[in-house]
Design brief:
It contains 2 helices and 10 strands. By secondary structure, it is mainly beta. The C terminus is likely disordered.
């Protein structure tokens, strides 16, 4: 069964707004986590609006992005509408484990989000800025 699904952002969300970006830290350390190839991992937080059961819902999503520079810098770390390029969702498989006290416990079964990059949708192309400023 597939564990990763690519998401059509336009058909899933009515709006996605950038909130913040910070380094994803290695578990239990103060060191930034990296991919196998050494690319730094970042955690981008966005608020996503969608309609579910006839009601508008808003959810803060933590989206993993691999980048050698802070993806929030291109957005001037300011809230704005964004596109999550190459957006995908995965689900960690649920597993039954026994904790140190001998109690059975179900772990996993949670969703995670990744994108190849985050791009502003409010930016006006340079050629359009020049034309509108001249007129």
């Amino acid at each position: 069964m597939p564990a990763i699904f690519h998401v059509d952002q336009a058909r899933t969300f009515s709006m996605v707004m950038f909130l913040s970006c910070s380094p994803k830290m290695q578990f239990g350390t103060q060191q930034q986590d990296t991919a196998k190839d050494g690319t730094p991992k970042w955690e981008v937080q966005v608020v996503a609006s969608f309609t579910q059961f006839g009601r508008t819902e808003n959810e803060i999503l933590k989206v993993g992005v691999l980048s050698h520079s802070n993806p929030g810098d291109a957005l001037q770390n300011m809230p704005q509408p964004v596109e999550l390029v190459g957006f995908r969702v995965g689900v960690t498989p649920a597993e039954k484990r026994t904790d140190r006290n001998g109690n059975d416990k179900v772990v996993g079964g949670t969703a995670w989000y990744q994108a190849d990059e985050i791009r502003s949708t409010s930016a006006v192309p340079t050629s359009r800025k020049s034309a509108s400023q001249e007129g």
